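Notes continue from the previous slide.

Worked example: a multi-chain complex. Inputs as given:
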Amino acid sequence: MNSDHLNTQLLHWGEEEEHPFGAVVPPIIQTSLFTYPDIQARLSEFNPHGYDYTRSGNPTTELAERKIALIEGADRALCCGSGMGAITCAVMAMVNQGDHVISIKTAYPPTLRLMNEYLPRYGVTTTLIDGFTVEEFEQACQPNTRLIYLETPSSMFFHLQDLKGIADLAKARDIVTIVDNSWATPLFQKPAALGIDLVVHSATKYMSGHSDIIAGVVAGSSALMERVNHARNTFGPTLDPFAAWLLIRGLRTLDVRMERHQKNGLQVASWLETQPGVKQVNHPGLNSHPQYELGRQQMSGYGSLFSVELTPCADEQAHAFVNSLRLFRIGCSWGGFESLVLGWPMREPEAGKRPWLFRLFIGLEHPEDLMRDLEQGLQKAFGSR
Ligand SMILES: Cc1ncc(COP(=O)(O)O)c(C=O)c1O
C-alpha cells in the first residue's frame, strides 16, 4: 500500500518479500552462501535467486536496507556490522590520494580518528572546523577538497550544521557531503531532501533501539552507493542476517519510540536548566541553544541525547552525582530503551574545582522518575536547595 507516513511505510513492505506464507514476521535467511544451479550460471555471475554470498548481499539484510532507504528518501541503503563500519566504507569510498576533507571537530571521536590517523597514511588531509556557519566551510575549501563530513547535532556538544547551505556550497564545487544522522533519525531529519549526498548511521542506536545489536547504515544515490557497495564488499563489514532481522524489528517501533524519547528528553532537559549545580544544558530543542532556530528549520523533532555542564566543583562532587544515580546506568552507548550517563572533567582543576560535562541519554522510563533520580544525585553533589 502506498503511504506518505513513515510508520506505515516501515510496517508494510512488499507482501511477498516480507510475509512469505502469510507470516507476520519475515524469516531470517541465516546463510553465508547461495549456490548456483549450474556452472554456466556461476561463470556468468548470474544466479537466478539473485544472491551469491552474504558479504555481498542477503535477503534479510536487504529488507532492512530497503526500509531504511525508503525512510531516508535515498535510492539505496547498505547495512554494515557497526556504525564505524558504515562511516569507514562511506569515507574510504569517496576519497583518493591527494584529496582534502573538511570535517567538524566535534564529530564522534573514532570518526575523527579515521580522518586524523588513517587518511593521512593514504595521502588524504583533513581540516577540522567548528562548522557553525556555511562561511566557515567555504573558507576551509581548498582546490582539492573532495569531501565534507558532518554530524548534526554533533557528539557531546550538540552543535548543528546548516545542511542545506553546506549542500549548496558543496554541489557548486563538486564536493561530496556525508552526514551522520544517528541522533535525529530519518523521522526527524531528512538530509537527502536538503541536498546531502550520503547519510550514515550508527543503527546500534535509535534505529535498532534495544541495545542488543551493533549495526550501521550508509544511504544515498545509486551512483555513490555503487562505490560504497564496492568498499563494503572489499573491507567486509556487511551486517549479519540475524542482526539485520533484529534491526527490522527495531524499525517497526522507531516512530513510537522516537516520539516518547523526544518528549521525555525535552522534559528532563528543560527541568535540568533550573536545577542548582547545573551551569548549562546543551540540547538543540531548548530555546537557550544558540542554534535553536536552525534546528527548528532543518529538524522536525529531537533525539533525547544531550549534555549537561555542572557548575565548577570538586571531582568528588561530580563522582557523587553520577555514582548515586540509580536509573541512569553508566555506559558509552545510547539509543536503547534505558537511560544512560557518561561524564568527563572539562579541564584541569583551578583551586580544586573544575567543570564537568555529563552526557545524558533519556530512555523510555517515566520522566518523573528520571528527574527524581537526577535531583537526588545533584543533592548528593551540591546539597539541597
Ligand atoms: C554519533 C555516532 N556516530 C557513530 C557511532 C559509531 O557507531 P557504532 O558504535 O555502531 O560503530 C556512534 C557510537 O556511539 C555515535 O554516537
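Summary box: The mean pLDDT is 95. The chain has two domains: 6-252, 256-382.
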